[in-house]
Amino acid sequence: MAKGGFPGGMGGMNMNNLMKQAQKMQKQMMEKQEELQAKTLEMTSGGGAVKVVITGKKEIQELKINPDVVDPDDVEMLEDLIISAVNEAIRQVEEMYNAEMGRMTGGLGGMF
């Protein structure tokens, strides 16, 4: 049996380096999450009839509705445009997170 380490030559020093690298990656991921949460994304629907600005925390920061699309006889259309813009904004935030975290972990998946 190898002295002071794991079989195959993976001694304590290598394990310490691995742990340090993992901690460094975790810190970088936390910093990246904070950076992403501070970002805002803008989405529109209906050719710009409805605009939504969302933060990286998935909080709606701004909602603008073009007055030309406000039709008291067709409130459902306006509701659909709002839902569409909000849902697309949420999807974009999730895609932004997945892309950035995927770059950082290099495909390690849910290891961290």
From TrEMBL:
Family annotation (InterPro entries): YbaB-like_sf, YbaB/EbfC
Family: Belongs to the YbaB/EbfC family.
Recorded GO CC terms: bacterial nucleoid; cytosol
Domain of life: Bacteria
Role of this protein: Binds to DNA and alters its conformation. May be involved in regulation of gene expression, nucleoid organization and DNA protection.
Location relative to the cell: Cytoplasm, Nucleoid
Molecular-function annotations in GO: DNA binding
Sections of the chain in a coiled coil: 15-42
Organism field: Anaerotignum faecicola
Self-association state and partner proteins as the record states: Homodimer.
UniProtKB keywords: Coiled coil, Cytoplasm, DNA-binding
Transmembrane segments: none
Record protein name field: Nucleoid-associated protein KGMB03357_11050
